[in-house]
Design goal:
Elements lengths: L24 E4 L12 H10 L3 E4 L12 H13 L1 E4 L3 H8 L3 H13 L3 E2 L3 E7 L2 E8 L22 H6 L8 E5 L5 H7 L1
Helix pairs in contact: 3-4
């Protein structure tokens, strides 16, 4: 698909601190090296209209079959010039690592780091606004767990304590956001809280 789709959600939860009411987040996923106009101008215009406080990128900005990441790096550069950007790894970024492009993969992540985009790789950060904060977790699901890529008879369930081992215990009294590329393990995410 070569079009921009925008879905708006309003999240209400009593754990969200008042300082975060009307906090605007843009979440981007699965661009797969696509370009929406020269320099991704159409995508940038849409994002600027929303005027988010932060941007979450949930993987697959690149296409695992491509060796050219310039389009992706260009859009991230433009975003980080105006917004705070947090990103996680998707299966296509891992696909590049597992194939013959390992050096390009390392270069890609090195370039992202130079752009001041924050990579949450089984890690978390506190987003602060005023005197309040919310927790932002980034979970990397290893490539082997992308079950649609494997035969149905192959067990690709997460180990029971995979998320807690990767991210630690969560404080259920605080407001927490989990970024993960695949929805296949939603029940596991929910169990972790």
């Amino acid at each position: 698909m070569n079009k921009i789709e925008i879905a708006n959600y309003v999240i209400k939860n009593k754990k969200i601190p008042k300082d975060f009411h009307n906090y605007n987040i843009v979440q981007i996923s699965d661009l797969h090296n696509k370009s929406f106009g020269k320099g991704n101008i159409k995508l940038l215009e849409k994002i600027n209209q929303i005027n988010p406080e932060v941007i979450f990128i949930t993987g697959d900005l690149i296409d695992g079959e491509s060796k050219d990441f310039s389009n992706t790096l260009e859009i991230v550069k433009k975003l980080t010039e105006k917004y705070k950007v947090y990103y996680i790894t998707g299966n296509h970024e891992q696909k590049v690592l597992l194939r013959r492009y390992k050096d390009l993969y390392l270069e890609y992540f090195s370039e992202l780091k130079k752009l001041d985009a924050v990579h949450l790789d089984n890690d978390y950060i506190r987003l602060k606004k005023g005197n309040a904060f919310i927790n932002l977790y980034g979970l990397t699901i290893p490539f082997k767990y992308y079950n649609y890529l494997f035969k149905k008879d192959k067990n690709t369930d997460l180990e029971e304590d995979f998320i807690e081992t990767s991210l630690g215990k969560i404080n259920k009294d605080e407001y927490n956001i989990l970024l993960s590329h695949t929805p296949f393990y939603f029940e596991d995410y929910e169990k972790w809280s």
